[in-house]
Specification:
Length: 709
């Protein structure tokens, strides 16, 4: 009996304990629900919800005429939430009714799978109750627009389960044109799983304005570790601002094409060409080309901003200093010792020996005498070299230009306080060595001479806009109103003109329809990859055109391979300058009077070109007697150089520019556009002049200017 009581006591005790425990649990649950519910709900949400960054649309970079140089295009990743209420209600009635038409629509939009394949994918996802299922990636905006009109999807996200995750890609519509200057904007994840932005060019300089302000989106964690956006939780980003540059797409194309042609022909290593608007300092074109391992050329670096020893183009600064300080005039004579001068044990030589030992300063400049410029620097400034350096400072050559690109190199202009200043430094600087300048800095000086002594700061951005509204405009800025006196300026211009008329660039500009002014340069390369003795030369030409009323200044710098067949500045860089100048002069709306007068022709001799059938039809109708020397060509030339009218074939090639002189405008346009050339026209009547000339090799889409009279 005692045992039974003992057992019952224990059972009752356990039962009582269970009752007490149950009361405690129920009480605690009630307390949590009524008094701590909000806290635990928020804690649960914090474990399943998080904010994700929404990138703003990056602003667009435009050329001065409004062409897009760099812009962002949207693309989308498409997901499906097969557990969406709209798909599951009424046992999936909506999904089942639309799956066939939706599958056919997806196949038509993406054209990568059959309708049956898409149907199988959708049915599998629905059956497995997939959440945030990736349907396809990198959908274009055009495809996305079509996608939104498909059955089921057009009902909206809640009913269809379709989710579009929008992204963006950076696009440069003109490809290689000014690619390095415009720059690139790309984002990637590094080895430490950190998001890294890598920008160069204008994309880097104005990154804070272009990228805008990011927004936020609330996302919920679902099964499988995926996150889905919470509808209506977005904090919209503020899109980036737009940049309008000073670049001109047409001038850039002309500049890059001319540079590319010479780079390929001479198998050069790297090169650049810059075109600047004289009056303002606006950069209208900046082309950079480097040789790639596969033999092609690409804008691999901004060579226009990299420093090197400029060579003879810097002789303009030496001449300016000597003239401004009244040590010489360009009419004074200087003994160049037949092109060889020994100074303190070092032999200074001219590239080409002069037939005379005595030259005027003007003659020594136009024939690029190293001896003359070394003597000007040494003889006049050896006792006070700081005075010589002051001219570099006045021309802002001792500091960066401040152009809108962060990768600009710092120049190196030695001064007497430096440890590496020695007896040969001053004469070497006189003809372009022991000083490191970028092509852009050298161009600034030539542009200042063309601009009647006003030194302009080069710049690349006209204005900043937001949704078409002007936020900030950049104006031309003068760094120095007068780099020298008017008399010095007159003498400098005379010498620069002489280079292109009688000097080292004479053969390049002898038949130009305008006058150019400038200076050639040829420099031995010593850059770490090559030493002076390796036979690698840098060719350059800097100048402006038309010489009497300059509109543009331009510099061309090309680094040639060792022991290249051509390496003189007059043979490599000057022809590139000439090609650029020819095309810009021909296309200029306010073309100045021509400087070369044509010889009057005898009116009894004439030439008429056009469609062969039409020419014959006209002459037969007028009963004109002619000798037919045509073959099976479409185009012919009727000429009357003798007593007999002769009809001959006009040879047309898809590689070389045809001769359209003598044609009417209709025939000329039909012929030139038929071989993929662009045509600009001035005047009426028949074609009397064309630029570029007939017989030259042309590129697809190249512009030809026709003058009618």
């Amino acid at each position: 009996m005692e045992i039974k009581k003992d057992i019952l006591w224990r059972v009752y005790l356990c039962f009582l304990g269970i009752v007490v425990l149950s009361v405690c649990v129920i009480g605690k649950a009630f307390y949590i629900q009524q008094f701590q519910g909000q806290y635990w709900k928020s804690l649960s949400d914090s474990l399943h919800l998080e904010y994700r960054t929404l990138d703003a649309d990056r602003g667009t970079i435009y050329s001065e005429d409004g062409s897009m140089l760099s812009t962002s295009i949207p693309f989308f990743n498409i997901y499906i939430d097969f557990m969406a209420d709209g798909l599951r209600e009424k046992e999936g009635k909506r999904f089942k009714e639309n799956i066939d038409s939706l599958s056919a629509g997806l196949a038509a939009v993406f054209n990568d799978k059959s309708a049956s394949a898409y149907k199988k994918i959708l049915e599998t996802g629905y059956r497995k109750k997939r959440r945030y299922f990736l349907l396809t990636k990198n959908v274009s905006f055009e495809q996305y627009q079509k996608l939104r009109e498909l059955p089921l999807i057009r009902l909206g996200r809640n009913k269809s389960g379709f989710i579009a995750d929008d992204m963006e890609k950076r696009l440069t519509p003109f490809g290689l044109l000014a690619n390095r200057t415009i720059g690139l904007s790309r984002t990637f994840i590094n080895d430490n799983r950190q998001v890294v932005s890598q920008n160069v060019g204008l994309e880097k300089t104005y990154d804070s304005l272009l990228k805008g302000v990011s927004g936020k989106r609330l996302v919920r964690r679902i099964s499988g570790g995926a996150f889905v956006p919470v509808e209506g939780s977005e904090i919209e980003p503020e899109n980036g601002k737009d940049i309008v540059t000073t670049l001109d797409v047409n001038i850039q194309d002309i500049t890059q094409t001319a540079l590319m042609r010479m780079m390929i022909a001479n198998e050069a290593l790297e090169g650049c060409a810059i075109v600047m608007e004289v009056a303002t300092g606006k950069i209208k074109a900046i082309a950079n080309l480097g040789l790639m391992p596969d033999g092609s050329y690409f804008e691999s670096d901004n060579f226009a901003l990299k420093t090197s020893e400029p060579g003879s183009t810097i002789k303009l600064v030496t001449l300016l200093a000597a003239l401004e300080d009244k040590y010489v005039t360009i009419a004074d004579q200087i003994d160049i010792h037949n092109g060889e001068w020994v100074l303190n044990g070092r032999k200074i030589r001219d590239a080409e020996k002069s037939p005379k030992t005595l030259l005027t300063i003007k003659e020594s400049f136009e024939h690029s005498s190293n001896v003359a410029m070394a003597k000007l620097a040494y003889n006049n400034y050896a006792k006070n070299p700081a005075q010589f350096i002051k001219h570099y400072e006045a021309l802002h050559l001792t500091t960066r230009t401040g152009i809108d690109l962060k990768e600009e190199f710092r120049p190196l202009v030695k001064n007497p306080s430096r440890k590496d200043w020695h007896m040969q430094t001053l004469p070497s600087m006189g003809f372009g060595y022991e000083v490191m300048l970028s092509p852009l800095q050298v161009l600034m000086v030539y542009n200042a001479v063309a601009n009647n002594g006003k030194l302009m700061k080069p710049y690349l951005v006209n204005r900043i806009e937001k949704d078409g509204n002007l936020l900030h405009a950049f104006e031309p800025e003068a760094l120095n109103e007068h780099i020298c006196s008017e008399e010095t300026l007159r003498q400098l211009k005379e010498c620069l003109n002489a280079v292109c008329v009688e000097g080292t660039a004479k053969s390049v500009f002898k038949d130009a329809l305008y006058t150019a002014a400038g200076k050639t340069g040829t420099t031995r390369v010593n850059d770490g990859n090559f030493k002076y003795g390796d036979g690698a030369y840098q060719s350059s030409f800097a100048g402006y055109f038309p010489a009497s009323h300059p509109k543009y200044s331009c510099i061309v710098v090309i680094k040639n391979k060792p022991r290249a067949a051509k390496y003189f500045g007059g043979a490599v860089a000057a022809p590139v300058f000439r090609e650029i100048a020819d095309k810009l002069f021909a296309e200029s709306a306010d073309r100045q009077p021509l400087y070369i007068a044509e010889t009057a022709t005898d009116s009894s001799h004439w030439r008429w070109s056009g469609n062969e059938k039409e020419l014959k039809k006209v002459m037969d109708a007028l009963q004109v007697q002619y000798a037919d020397s045509t073959g099976s060509g479409k185009w012919s030339i009727a000429s009357n150089t003798t007593a007999t009218l002769v009809l001959t074939n006009l040879i047309v090639s898809k590689q070389t520019i045809p001769d359209v002189k003598g044609m009417g405008l209709k025939d000329a346009i039909a012929l030139l556009e038929g071989i993929n050339m662009k045509v600009t026209v001035k005047g009426t009547g028949k074609v009397t002049r064309q630029s570029p000339d007939a017989g030259l090799i042309f590129n697809r889409g190249e512009t030809i200017a026709l003058e009618l009279n």
